[in-house]
Design goal:
329 residues; alpha/beta; Rossmann fold; 2 domains; 9-stranded mixed β-sheet; 9 strands; binds NADPH dihydro-nicotinamide-adenine-dinucleotide phosphate; binds magnesium ion; Ketol-acid reductoisomerase (NADP(+))
Amino acid sequence: MKVYYDQDTNLDAVKDKTIAVIGYGSQGRAQALNMKDSGLNVIVGLRPNGASWEKAKADGHTVMTIEEAAEKADVIHILIPDEVQADVYNKQIKQYLTEGKTLGFSHGYNIHYGYIVPPEGVNVIMVAPKSPGAMVRKTYEEGFGVPGLVCVEKDETGDALDIALGMAKAEGLTRAGVIKTTFREETETDLFGEQAVLCGGVTELIKAGFETLVEAGYAPEMAYFETCNELKLIVDLIYQKGLAGMWHDVSNTAEYGGISRRERVVNEESRKAMKEILKEIQDGRFAREWALENISGRPHLNAMRRLENEHLLETTGKKLRKMCGLEKD
Ligand code: NDP
Ligand code: MG
């Protein structure tokens, strides 16, 4: 695995280029500001009546329509939500992709599954901070950065990797380290992580634990604290010190009980399900399902959102978070 740091990289491939950041949300704002503060020539492409327009102007950017930005730029870095990228690309960007330009992303989804097919002669790269936008900006302002990924799907000019690394450096990512990977690896591991572990696995584990306690007659407030609220403390320990460090810091009773019981909760059946989930990501079944869901107005997602919001875990949590001053109305 190749990791690039500040001393391995320079801005030569990007310093004379115009970089259009399309979108000014979580990633767009952070990446555009960092690159501008590093001296790169950044323009921001947005829809004129959207909420971001004034925000980007107030931050000191040169703001224009997506079409104008795509026409002017050498590098078009697409940082709008993944599910609208193909439509915006086809209607507002594609026609300006002349030979020698570079198309950039922070997630490989649309390129990997073929929703966006760039023309011949155009570089396709990824510069992906491994962190939410707010952290990308905050750490940069503190003089450091978050780790990131770079990938090259198509190198038509011979310096596509240098362009990606130049942008990564300007965003502060090479200060923490940038890993070179592929669009396929980034897309598939990212989807798997969020589905099986980070977003899907963890929420269902919390709900199952909460429901078990409540069904056995314990107070929902107690159940919430024990199965949800305290998760943050454990995750912080794992994040800072690894599994062994976490085991060291919890009580011996917690360590013995946890290690001796955990495989009854997550077991062979769960691993089999994880393998199926990964297969659906690899063979495109998940992407097709999500595309159909979007085309049909997201009926399943909307219903699942409503059901989850109504769950006792959520109503209990809302009350408790307000009580602890963690959440306002
Ligand atoms: P956001 O949801 O924050 O993007 C919002 C921006 O997109 C706004 O400027 C909005 O403009 C614009 N936008 C939304 N819909 C449209 C549309 N139909 N046409 C034109 N502009 C539109 O996106 P993220 O920053 O979360 O994600 C951007 C990319 O970064 C994605 O590929 C994502 O996978 C990737 N990524 C995200 C991470 C994160 O932490 N969020 C982490 C790593 C990668 P307006 O104000 O006009 O509505
Ligand atoms: Mg991810």
